[in-house]
Amino acid sequence: MRAALLLASFVFLSLTTFAQVQKRVMVEHFTQASCPPCAAQNPAFNQLLFDNAEKVVSLKYQTSFPGFDPMNEDNPEEVLIRRNYYGITGVPNVILGGSLDAGIAADVTVGQIDNINAEMTPLDMELTHSLSEDLDSIFVTCVIKNVTEQDTFFRPNTVLQTAIIEQELLFPNPPGSTDETDFYNVMRKMLPDADGLSVGLIPSGDSVVVEFAEPLPDYLYDYSQIGVVAFVQSNNDQEVHQAAISETLGQPEGFLDLALGVQAAEPETYCQEELTVSSVVENAGNTEINSFDLTLFANGEEVETQNFDGALMEGMSETFNFNVMLTGGSSAFTIEVSNINGDGGEDLNSLNQLDNSFSVATLPQEPFGMEIEEGFEDVELVTGTPENTVIERPSTFVMAVVSQDVFQSPPGNMGAYGNSDQSVLVDFYNWDDVGAQANLVYGKLDLTESENTQVTFDYAFAQFSGFATNDRFIVSVSEDCGENWTTVYDEGGANFATTTAVQPFYVAAPGDWASDTIDLSAYDGTAELNIRFTAQTDWGNNLYFDNINVSEQVVNSVDEPNQLEGKVFAFPNPATDLVNVEFSLVENSTVLAQVFDISGKHVTTLLPGSELGVGGHQLQWRPSEAGVYLVRIATEHGTVTKRVTVVK
Questions:
Q1: Of 216, 226, 309, 384, which is least surrounded by CB within 10 A?
Q2: How many CB atoms lie within 10 A of CB 132?
């Protein structure tokens, strides 16, 4: 049973007196596992701390932003208190000695460390810790000494801050969205909490002894990496007077440490029905392991359990194979180990069991239909997947269904042209893995009876301002369930943009949208055809797409294959005082002609839903201000948007 009591006591001891001592520099580093600048700066910053280990004491707070961080989720409240204490609004951010905000990690210098280290302080600190035999409690002793010969140490509103750390966490895979896997001196729990314990006056030559006895948190990853950091800080000016560290005690004797990894070959096609999964289990500890259970789960449901009964000595490993039957859709598989040595023995280190999962996207063998009509309205926001599809993406928000509820101040409905609630966002803005792709793949279509097959879709796209980016939208088809693909559409960059380049995160406005058509008539009569929509990042700005339709085109005359496409013109472009809008109709239609500015705000209506006959028509618009505008012609048979630049 875990110890239930916290013991914190102060004891005064008489000491031999000395002169003042140098400060160890308290380095508080606010960082995050999904922060690209943090990942880029940490190797050099960590090396700086290693090189100055005798001068510094470091403590890493894993914050809640900008993305996912499991270390923060274990203890977000105490991190938030320390973040608010310093007013931290962005990461990375480093505080030296409590009172110096050094900015980002890359800006910290040896000179700054040396300057604080050279400061003299009346306080010296000794910090030690031990663990209970069953590894469920920690015992900490901190001795704070006033080493001066005559002066009593007293600073109003001064506290002792104490933190349980894990000295090194080496994840088998990145725990966030960057490639960072190695984390040092991570704060896991403050003692007794993030407010610390008040430190009163300490007479010259005396010391205060503070002792803690506290249960260890159950979310720790590696018990062999447990250490403690402590520092004395005045809250009035945030100065840290002294800091100390009690480093890890290493791997305790007699405890279990079982490591496992999972390997699964990628399916050769989306229609593969069986897969072999291998798991290598290794004894990474110093205690013999003679039994355990290994269980495979699919989407949370148990598939199969295999048992080990033998002798697995230190450093030895065993391989287990599972045969997995795949069904259409995305399947998440996890392998877990239990009942180690038959008594449910607790594992010393859970980090080396985190590489235990994989996902496989498959599609049914049989076609699901003869056409696609997808507006994404019935798809669960962010995490949902449209019916008859799989989504392959490095992280959820890279390609996700969104509505205006996802954004703080959306300019309108997020469906195409503001006419519906939902669309798909491709978050190029935060996707810095240049060249990487995400895919929305549809199951098989049966086009044996289809003629003049085409794909139509709506989209809104902005480049990143400041430098040229070439994010791309690619459509391809496969006749063998994904073994081979043929590209039928590849657009991106400035030619694909529907609005001007912007530098903040781009949220599509109703007037930003355009439409496009892909001719698939070459695949008429194909019995099994998969269609894949691919987004390829160049770390630019965002793309939204909506209303994917795949169907045969009804042809009644030579003009009808694309009723408005190619029949709407706006000129001159750029224009100054007059814009001519010409369009032709292949049948009587109700025509709505409107002008929007680049933000999606309605500027004027050129034609308010009027009935017009077959043939050519011309409208004129006299703009009053310079800018970029969108001229939209809409009928019951289609919509076309033209961008016009006006200069004055």
A1: 309
A2: 14
* Residue at token pair 């995050």: 32
Question: DSSP 3-state assignment of 145?
Answer: strand
H helix or E strand, kind and range, residue 154: none
Report the alpha-carbon distance of residue 49 to residue 47 in Å, rounded.
5
CB of 72 closer than 8 Å to CB of 62 = yes
Q: Please answer whether residues 165 and 57 qualify as being in contact, where contact means their C-beta atoms are separated by less than 8 angstroms.
A: no
Q: Residue 40: pLDDT band by 50, 70, 90 thresholds?
A: very high
| Mean pLDDT across 156-167 | 97
Answer left, alpha or beta for residue 561, where phi above 0 means left and psi between -120 and 50 means alpha: alpha
Distance from chain centroid for Cα 261: 23
Beta carbons within 10 angstroms of residue 463's beta carbon: 26
**What is the pTM for the complete model shown?**
0.67
Give the pLDDT mean for 170-190.
Answer: 94
Q: Are 28 and 123 in contact (CB under 8 A)?
A: no
Full set of structural domains in the chain with CATH: 9-246 (2.60.40.10), 258-362 (2.60.40.10), 372-553 (2.60.120.200), 562-646 (2.60.40.1930)
Tokens in use for 402? 């969104």
Residue 616 contacts residue 582 (beta carbons within 8 Å):
yes
CA terminus-to-terminus distance, the chain: 79
Average pLDDT over residues 615-634: 90
pLDDT digits (tens, 9 = 90+) for 464-509: 998 889 999 999 999 999 999 999 999 999 989 999 999 999 999 9
CB 400 within 8 A of CB 383: yes
Q: Are 223 and 252 in contact (CB under 8 A)?
A: yes
- The letter for the amino acid at 72 is N
Average pLDDT of the segment spanning 202-222:
96
Residues 6+ apart with CB under 8 A from 648: 576, 625, 626
Strands 137-146 and 206-215: antiparallel
Phi, psi torsion values for 525, nearest 5 degrees: 90, -5
Cβ-defined contacts of 310-313 (< 8 Å, 24+): 312/281, 312/283, 312/288, 313/283, 313/288
Per the DSSP assignment, residues forming a β-bridge with 439 are 392, 534
CB 35 within 8 A of CB 67: yes
Give me the mean pLDDT over the 527-537 stretch. 97
Peptide linkage before 66 cis (omega within 30 of 0): yes
Inter-residue contact 207 to 143 (CB < 8 Å): yes
What pLDDT score was predicted for residue 397? Answer: 85
**Taking a C-beta distance cutoff of 8 angstroms, is the pair 57, 229 a contact?**
yes
Give the Cβ contact number of residue 47 at 10 Å. Answer: 10
Q: Rounded distance, CA 574 to CA 34, Å?
A: 43
pLDDT band at 265 (very low <50, low <70, confident <90, very high): confident
**65 burial class (0-12, 13-18, 19+ CB within 10 angstroms)?**
middle
- Let me know the angle formed at the C-alpha of 384 by 176 and 332, rounded to the nearest 5 degrees: 60
Please choose, from the candidates 101, 102, 91, the residue with its C-alpha nearest in 3D space to the C-alpha of residue 60.
91
Rounded-to-integer distance, Cα 58 and Cα 43, Å: 15
Task: Look at residue 7 and tell me whether its pLDDT is greater than 70.
Answer: no
On whether the CB atoms of residues 335 and 357 are closer than 8 A, the answer is yes
What is the β-pairing status of strands 274-283 and 258-264?
A: antiparallel
Least confident of 238-247, 284-293, 339-348: 339-348
Task: Select from 547, 545, 546 the least CA-distant residue to 428.
Answer: 545
pLDDT at position 16, please? Answer: 45
